[in-house]
Amino acid sequence: MSARPDGQQSLSAAFGRPLVLAVFVLTLLFLVAPIVVTFVASFARDWTGVLPSGFVSVRHWERVLGFAAYQDAADYSLRLGEMLATLPRDPFAAFGKTPLFRSVFLALGGVAINLVVGVPIAYAVARYDFRGREWLNAIAVLPLAPGIILGIAFLRAYPELSGTDFGLIVGYSLLKAPFMVLAVQSSFEAMELRQLEESARSLGASWLRTFLVVVVPNAKRGIVSGAIICWALAAAEFNFSYVVYSRGARPLALFLKANISNSSFETTAAAVSVFFVLIAGVTLALQLLGNRGFATR
Amino acid sequence: MSRITIDDVTKRFGDTTAVDGVSLDIDDGEILGVVGPSGCGKTTTLRTLAGFETPTSGRVLFDGDDVTHRPPETRNVGLVFQSYALFENMTVRQNVEFGPKMQGVSGDERRERATDLLSMLGIPELADRDPATLSGGQRQRVGLARALAIEPHILLLDEPMTGLDAKLKTRLREEVGDLLSELDVTALYVTHDQVEAMEMCDSIAVMNDGQVEQVGTPREVYESPASSFVSEFVSLDVPDFAFVDGAP
Amino acid sequence: MDAEDAPTSTPNLSDSAPRSARLPDSVRALVAPRTERDRERRRILALCAPFLVLAAVAGIYPLAEMARISVSEARFVSTGFSVDAYVDLATNQYLRRAAWNTLWFGLATTAVSLLAATATAHALQKYTLPAEDLLVTLLSFPVSLPGIVAAFMIIVLLGNTGLLTNAVAWFAGESAIDLAVATGVAGLFIAYCYSMIPRALLLLRGSYAEVNERAEEAARSLGASPARTFYHVTLPQIKPGLIGAFILTFRTALAIFGTVLVLQAMRVWTYEIDYVLSNGFQIQLAAAMAVVWFVFVLAFTVLGLKYTSAEVGL
C-alpha cells in the first residue's frame, strides 16, 4: 500500500471524489426534484406543454381541500368545506367528515398505544440485562409483518373490527412501534440509566415512581420525537389501510391514492403537496427538538 | 445515623463469587473506607448495603435490624455516584428536595433542609440552576446534598472523586471530609485511591478477590499491613504519606 | 434518623412463606420476590408486558389465524386440514413468475439503492459540503412518503407529462408519450429506489458516523490510494452496518405494494396477494401467499442476523 513509485496519482485519487460527488448530487436531485416540481405544479392552472403554466392558481388546492367541486361527479377531496359548514350545527360529526381529521385522530390513537408499549420495552432493553434480551430487541425494532400481510391477517382474525377506527389504530400501533422504540432508545443510550434509577430509589422513590417521575421526564426528547415520527408514518400508512378500510372518511393515504388514480395531474399534485406540507411541519417540529429530520439515531 | 453490620456476606453471580464471606462493622459516625483493585468486590459490597444486590448468604443489619431482604427504597441510605446521576429534569433545589418529598416531609421543612444543605456545601446560589449547566465539582456537591437531605442511616460513596481534576480533588477531599465528620455521618467510602481513603476515613478495609484482607485505622494498615497484598497495595502510591494531625 | 423511623412496610416474610411454599420457585419469585434480582425480573416482565400483549393481539394471533385459514378445508371457516391452497400456489405458473419477479427485482433494487446510499453517506460524512444540515433534512424527507407517493414522484419525472420525459422529447423532437417509462418496468425500478435509498441512507449514516477516522488518515498518509483506503480500512468498519442495511432494505423491497398498485408495471408477490383478494376474495390463497412471504422474510432475517456480523439499527 505504498505510494506509486512513478509518482503518478492513483486512479481513485483523481476520479474517486468527483465520482462519489456525482452520485451524491444525482441522488439528491432524484429525491428532491420531483417533490419541488410537484409542489410548484400544484399552483399551475395546467400542464400540457413542456412546463406547467398559468401561475399562480389555487384552483387545485381548493379542489383537494374541498372548497371547490371536482370536474366529474366523484369527490376525492379532504372535504374541509363540508366540515366547516357542518361545524356550527354538529361539531362532533364535522370532524368525522374529513379524511384529514380522521387520519389525525387514527394516527394519534396509534401513537398513544405506541407510548404505552414502546417506552417501557425500550427501557427494559436499555436498562436491564436478561436472557433473550437481544432477540427481544430485534423483535421490538424490526417490523413484525408489513402492512399488506398484517392487513390480511386482520381481515381474517377480526372480520368485524378490522376496518373500524379501533382496528386501524391497533394495526398502526404495531406497524409503527419500532420507530418509537428506536427513538426512545437513542435517548436512553445517552443517559446513565442505572445510576439514575438507583439514586432515585435510594432516596425513597418506589421503582414505579422512579420510572414515571425521573426516567420518563429525562427521556422526554426521544419520546416526543418518537411520537411525532410514529404519528407521521401512521398517517401515511397506505398498504394496511388499503386492505382493511371499509367505510367512513378515507384515511389520508387512501385520499392520496384516490387522487393519484383518478384526478388530473395538477389536482393530484395539490393533494400530494398537502401531504408534503404536513410532513414538512412534522420535520420542522423534530428539528426544533434537535433531531435531523426522520433520523432517529 | 446508625451502626451498620455486614455479617458474613457472600454474593455470587453465576459461577463467579464477587464477595466471599465479608464481615464489616461501621460504628455510628464512623467513616469506613473500602479500598482495593477493580473487581475486588468493593462496589458489590456497597450495593449490598444499599439493597441493589441481595446477598447469596449472610445478613445486613442497620442498628441490629435485619434489612437483608428489604428493597432499597425502604432502607434510607444516601448514595453518591461517580457520575453524580443528577436528575436533569429538575432544578438543583428540586434534586435536593426529591428524597424528603418521597419520604413525605412537608414542603416547608423540605425547603429549609435544602437551603441549609446547599449553604453548608457552599453552593446556595446554585439552587435554581439546571444541573446540566454545572461544573463537575458543583455537581458533586449537589449529589452529596441530595444524598444527605434524607438524613440517611448511612452515606454510601462510590468513587465520588474519580474523574475530577487533581486540584479540585484535593480541595473537595478536605471539605467533604470535614463536612462528614462535622455532621457525624456514618459512611462507607469506596475508592481505588488509597490516599483519598487514608485522608478521609476513620478506618480502612482493604479488599482483594472478594475478601477483606485487613481492617484498621489508616495508620495501622499503613504501618503494619496484615499481608503482602495489603503492604503492596497500600504502599503503591504513598511513599511519603504524611498523617495529618488528628488522624487516628 | 433513628431506626424506629425507618419505613416498616415490608411484608412479613415468615407469614407469606408457607402459603407460597407450594408454588414452583420461579412462580414464587414473581409472586413474593425476596431478592432484588427477583424484583428486577418482575419489573422486566412488567416493562415487556404491554409490548408482548400488543404483539400477541395485533401480530401473533392474527397471523396465526391467517395461517390457519390457509390450510382450512372450508373457504371461510377454519376447519379440517388441507394444503390445497399451497398446491395451487406451487402449481400456478403466474405465481411462480411473480415470486421470481419479486426476488430479482428486490435484489437488484436493493443493490442499486445501497450503492447510491453508500456514496451519499460517504459524501456527507467525509466531504465538506455546504449547508450539510439542510442536505440531510432534504435527503431524509422521502423516508416518510408512502409507496404510492413514490410512484407519483416517478410519474412526475418520467410519466407522459413528466419533467424528464418532456425535456428529452423537446430536445430530441420525439413524442413524449413514446418516451415515458414511468409505467414500465424501468419506471417501477426507479420508484422502488425512490423508496429505498432514503431508508438505506438512514442506516448507513449511522454506520459511517462510527468509522474511526484516524485509521483512514493513517492509511492515507502511508500512501494508500483513496480506493484502497476505502476497501481496506473503511469498508471493514461499515460492513456490519452494510449487511444490516442490506437485510432491512431487501425486506422493504419485498414489502412494497402501493408503488406497484399505482404503476402496474409488473406483478410482484404483494400485488398478487391483493389481486386474489380483490378478485373473488380468495382468502385461503391470499393467506397462503402471505404465509409464504412471512416465513421467507422471517427465515431470511433470522439467518441474516445470526450468521452474519449484521448490525441492525432500524
TrEMBL record, chain A:
Transmembrane segments: 20-44, 100-123, 135-154, 166-188, 223-245, 265-289
Protein name: ABC transporter permease subunit
Organism for this UniProt entry: Halobacterium bonnevillei
Entry's Gene Ontology BP terms: transmembrane transport
Pfam families named in the record: BPD_transp_1 (PF00528)
Record SUPFAM superfamilies: MetI-like
Domain (ABC transmembrane type-1) ranges: 100-287
Localization of this protein: Cell inner membrane; Cell membrane
InterPro entries linked: MetI-like, MetI-like_sf
UniProtKB/TrEMBL annotation, chain B:
Protein name from the UniProt record: Molybdate/tungstate import ATP-binding protein WtpC
Membrane topology: Peripheral membrane protein
Enzyme Commission (EC) number: 7.3.2.6
GO cellular component terms, semicolon-separated: plasma membrane
Enzyme class: translocase
PANTHER family recorded: SPERMIDINE/PUTRESCINE IMPORT ATP-BINDING PROTEIN POTA, SPERMIDINE_PUTRESCINE IMPORT ATP-BINDING PROTEIN POTA
Catalysed reaction equations from the record: tungstate(in) + ATP + H2O = tungstate(out) + ADP + phosphate + H(+)
Organism this protein belongs to: Halobacterium bonnevillei
Function noted in UniProt: Part of the ABC transporter complex WtpABC involved in molybdate/tungstate import. Responsible for energy coupling to the transport system.
Family per similarity comment: Belongs to the ABC transporter superfamily. Sulfate/tungstate importer (TC 3.A.1.6) family.
PROSITE patterns from the UniProt entry: ABC_TRANSPORTER_1 (PS00211), ABC_TRANSPORTER_2 (PS50893)
SUPFAM superfamilies for this protein: P-loop containing nucleoside triphosphate hydrolases
Subunit structure: The complex is composed of two ATP-binding proteins (WtpC), two transmembrane proteins (WtpB) and a solute-binding protein (WtpA).
Keyword Zinc: no
SMART domains the record matches: AAA
Subcellular location: Cell membrane
Domain of life, source organism: Archaea
Alphabetized GO MF terms: ABC-type ferric iron transporter activity; ABC-type tungstate transporter activity; ATP binding; ATP hydrolysis activity
Domain ABC transporter intervals: 4-234
Pfam families in the cross-refs: ABC_tran
Keyword annotations: ATP-binding, Cell membrane, Ion transport, Iron, Iron transport, Membrane, Molybdenum, Nucleotide-binding, Transport
Automatic annotation (TrEMBL), chain C:
Domain ABC transmembrane type-1: 99-304
Entry's localization field: Cell membrane
Keywords (A to Z) from UniProt: Cell membrane, Membrane, Transmembrane, Transmembrane helix, Transport
Main location: membrane
Lipid bilayer topology: Multi-pass membrane protein
Signal peptide: none
Residues passing through the membrane, by range: 44-64, 103-124, 136-159, 179-197, 242-263, 283-305
Residue stretches of biased makeup (Polar residues): 7-17
Domain of life from the UniProt record: Archaea
Annotated segments matching region Disordered: 1-22
One example of a Gene Ontology biological process annotation: transmembrane transport
PROSITE patterns to which the protein is assigned, alphabetical: ABC_TM1
GO cellular component terms given for this protein: plasma membrane
Pfam family, one: BPD_transp_1
UniProt similarity note: Belongs to the binding-protein-dependent transport system permease family. CysTW subfamily.
Protein name: ABC transporter permease subunit
Organism lineage: Archaea, Methanobacteriati, Methanobacteriota, Stenosarchaea group, Halobacteria
